[in-house]
Amino acid sequence: MTATPSSFIPINSAGGAGRYAPSPTGDLHLGNLRTAVIAWSLAHLSGRDFKLRVENLDRVRAGSADGQLADLAALGLAWDQPVVYQDSRIAVYEDAIEQLSQQGLVYECYCSRKDIREATSAPHILPGTYPGTCRNLTDEERATRRVVLSEQGRSPSLRLRSEVSEFTVQDQFAGAFTGPVDDVVIRRGDGVIAYNLAVVIDDAFQGIDQVCRGDDLLSSSPRQAYLASLLGLPPVTYAHVPLVLNPAGERLAKRDGAVSMRDLAGLGWGADQVLAWIASSLGVEGAEGATGLTLPEVARQISWETVNNGPVIFDPPQLAHA
């Protein structure tokens, strides 16, 4: 294991920190806001700081980040400054890729999504994992494939050459969770730094040792924790929480109706009512329909058994134009 580069040293990790890290692709919906409330509560109940990060390496909708921060603040979430914006940290991610490259842990991948989809349909390939198509190509084969990609106007992605097949993380709700580790992309063919790399570097930089997020990301945690270990970064503990679903049992989405604070405000819901619904979904007695709740009050009364009971259903009011 190599020494931790100075660029990864946390801002302030004396007491640890939790975080919330939205992607600015649109308004946060009730499921996102509920997870943020849980993350804030877990951090403060355990004496940690609470940090915020805007994960804006990929798709970004203009004005979305400011709107998301305003919604979080309206619910009473306060965070320790500064907010970290990932697009300001590209050089740090490239330094990490160089570090991994010097260890012989990076290789070019020439596969398209279709190539990977067809390869992973084979019965001996674990669903959702990369089959290693480009892992052991010869120099001659690599040169040939670079030419082919160039003629198509494409560039190769970069993958981590994993030395393990699985890794174990600790999760507050799932316990010890062991999942597969494959050769994840660390830089896409279009040059965008991959989420799996950026998230572990930024968590270390912000002093995050408690990661709370939706349980749809639990399966990716072993890959991220393994990658962090290769970079010499401190481990984190996880708390993956069940998602909010629509009445059909599908992930809540904008198409379901009024699911964001902006849309709900148009139907007469204030921040009080949104927080009350979230509190009720977390097992806070008497929260349904309550007014004047504060986030610290909600945090102290959350039923963590309720949190871990499974997905929550929200039947959104329909917008007039829907």
TrEMBL record:
The keyword Protein biosynthesis applies. GO terms for cellular component: cytosol. GO terms for molecular function: ATP binding; glutamate-tRNA ligase activity; zinc ion binding. SUPFAM superfamilies: Nucleotidylyl transferase (SSF52374). Residues 19-316 form the Glutamyl/glutaminyl-tRNA synthetase class Ib catalytic domain. InterPro entries: aa-tRNA-synth_I_CS, Glu-Q_tRNA(Asp)_Synthase, Glu/Gln-tRNA-synth, Glu/Gln-tRNA-synth_Ib_cat-dom, GluQ/Sye, Rossmann-like_a/b/a_fold. Gene3D superfamilies: HUPs. Keywords: Aminoacyl-tRNA synthetase, ATP-binding, Ligase, Metal-binding, Nucleotide-binding, Protein biosynthesis, Zinc. GO terms for biological process: glutamyl-tRNA aminoacylation; tRNA modification. The keyword Cell membrane does not apply. It holds the Pfam family tRNA-synt_1c. PROSITE patterns: AA_TRNA_LIGASE_I. Belongs to the class-I aminoacyl-tRNA synthetase family. This is tRNA glutamyl-Q(34) synthetase GluQRS. It comes from Boudabousia marimammalium.
